[in-house]
Amino acid sequence: MTATLLLRLLERIHGHLGWLAVAALLHPAILLRKPRRRARLSVSLATGLVVVTALLGAYFYPAYRNRIKQHLFIEAPKLGWMFERKEHLAVGAVAFALVGCVSHLALPRAGAAEPTLERLAHRAFVLAFGFALATAVLGVAVASYKSF
Amino acid sequence: MRDKRAIWIATVLAALISVPATYAFLRAYEVLAFAEPNPARIVWTAHIAVFWRVAIAAYVAGMVAPIAYLAARRDAAKVFRVLYASVFIAGAMIAIQGIFMP
């Protein structure tokens, strides 16, 4: 398998995992609306998926910079800036998914802070879902124009 | 025992929430304070800005953690209320920066 083919494969996997992560994040964002609801498995799997997707993206990001970024900015600068937006919003998606996960998993040990943590976890997952959705949409827009 | 755990939870959450806020602040500062070269003219650079910003944000999170720990030891409930509001602020920061200051 050539390096280009491998990068192309990783990029496709990254894209598909990204959309799965969006779908997975929607689950806790809806479930945790009810304050007493517990969804440890859903929360853990959704966050794990987001983190794995982000790590995979970070793994081949240097290759994107070497092979695609400059060409993208020359040929379609708007899409180049869209990719920049995607990077920033992805950081938000990962960070808020982790915040939501820690908040929710820590609930049994939170004592008097439990009601605040319940609301915090829900809010964090709603934000993570919003950022992940925007990231996925922008990613598809760029990838459909230029790829490895 | 429960209170001690709550203090640690507040510490970890404060550190995590500081990451997107710091990231957004750093990028907004870069955009507003410096004239950046056109990306179409850059062939390659050793410096990967997004990784650098995440690393700096992680470093700041490490500095936020002991402050949050001390604050939570005094009044954990208040720290949790502040964290709850902070999630919204940090979310707004990275959304505004991400959309308007790419």
Count of helical segments of chain A? Answer: 4
Helix residue percentage of chain B? over 70%
Helicity level of chain A: over 70%
State the total count of DSSP E strands of chain B: 0
Low-confidence stretches of chain A: none
Structure notes:
The complex is a heterodimer of chains A (148) and B (102). With 148 residues, chain A is an all-alpha fold. Chain A has 4 helices and no strands. The longest helix of chain A has 36 residues, at 40-75. Chain B has helices at 2-33, 49-100. Chain B is mainly alpha-helical and 102 residues long. The longest helix of chain B is centred in the C-terminal third of the chain and has 52 residues, at 49-100. In chain B, 82% of the residues lie in helices and 0% in strands. Chain B has 2 helices and no strands. Classes of the chains: A mainly alpha (148), B mainly alpha (102). Chain A binds chain B through residues 58, 61-62, 65-66, 69-70, 73-74, 77, 80-82, 84-85, 87-89, 91-92, 95-96, 98-99, 102-103, 106, 109-113, 116-117, 119-120, 123-124, 127, 130-131, 134, and chain B through 2-3, 5-6, 9-10, 12-13, 16-17, 19-20, 23-24, 27, 38-45, 48, 50-51, 53-54, 57, 76-77, 80-81, 83-84, 87-88, 90-91, 94-95, 97-99, 102.
Layout: helices, strands, pairs:
The complex is a heterodimer of chains A (148) and B (102).
Chain A (H helix, E strand, L loop, with lengths): L2 H29 L8 H36 L1 H29 L8 H30 L5
Helix pairs in contact in A: 1-2, 1-4, 2-3, 3-4
Chain B lengths: L1 H32 L15 H52 L2
Helix pairs in contact in B: 1-2
Task: Give short descriptive properties of this protein.
heterodimer; A: 148 residues; mainly alpha; B: 102 residues; elongated
Q: What is the compact description of this entry?
A:
The complex is a heterodimer of chains A (148) and B (102). By secondary structure, chain A is an all-alpha fold.
